[in-house]
Write a structure and sequence with these properties.
184 residues; alpha+beta; Glutaredoxin; four-stranded mixed β-sheet; two-stranded antiparallel sheet; 6 strands; 16% strand
Length: 184
């Protein structure tokens, strides 16, 4: 799986080319993000994680998606401006693309295949969505905005966390610290 993931071509929000291979040897937190979601304040925590651990070889990679409730309707410029002005985001953001369903981008097809089940209070969140009249995706699909995939230094997916697992949640932070402690 590591080779499959690293070979995938990615495009940053500014249009420049990237791939996971360009982040080889780092611990990565891949997050599908949205600007108009109840979970959008997680951008602040994601930026704190990034600045706290980047010197140890950690990166947050944000992937805007408009899959859930049309909560990311803006252009690349809108998204970039929103993230910088409101949350001081300095971690890499990529072009907006689907993360669920038949048209999901190849990265998310590979991530969900590698780690089909998420950790955290998934059923509680599903019930909350149902209370709003929203049919929640079932595993292995991404449930909602701000779901997180943790990739180890070796390029393997080592964890997947429910959208409501906040960036400062002990479950996520300890998993990141454990991966950072491993030799490159």
């Amino acid at each position: 799986m590591a080779n499959e993931l690293s070979a995938l071509a990615l495009t940053r929000l500014d249009g420049s080319s990237d791939s996971l291979a360009q982040h080889a040897g780092k611990v990565l937190l891949v997050v599908n993000v949205a600007s108009q979601c109840g979970l959008t304040p997680q951008y602040e925590g994601l930026e704190k994680l990034y600045t706290s651990y980047r010197e140890q070889g950690f990166e947050v990679l944000g992937f805007p998606a408009n899959d859930f409730g049309n909560q990311e309707p803006g252009s690349a410029e809108d998204i970039d401006q929103f993230c910088k002005v409101n949350y001081g985001v300095s971690f890499p953001l990529f072009t907006k693309a689907p993360v669920s369903g038949e048209d999901k981008q190849p990265l998310y097809a590979a991530l969900t295949a590698a780690e089909p089940v998420k950790q955290g209070p998934v059923e509680e969140f599903r019930e909350k969505l149902k209370g709003y009249g929203i049919a929640a995706n079932e595993d292995p699909e991404v449930l909602w905005n701000f779901e997180k995939f943790l990739i180890g230094r070796d390029g393997q997916v080592v964890g997947r966390f429910a959208p409501v697992v906040a960036p400062d949640d002990a479950l996520l932070v300890s998993a990141i610290q454990e991966e950072l402690a491993k030799a490159n």
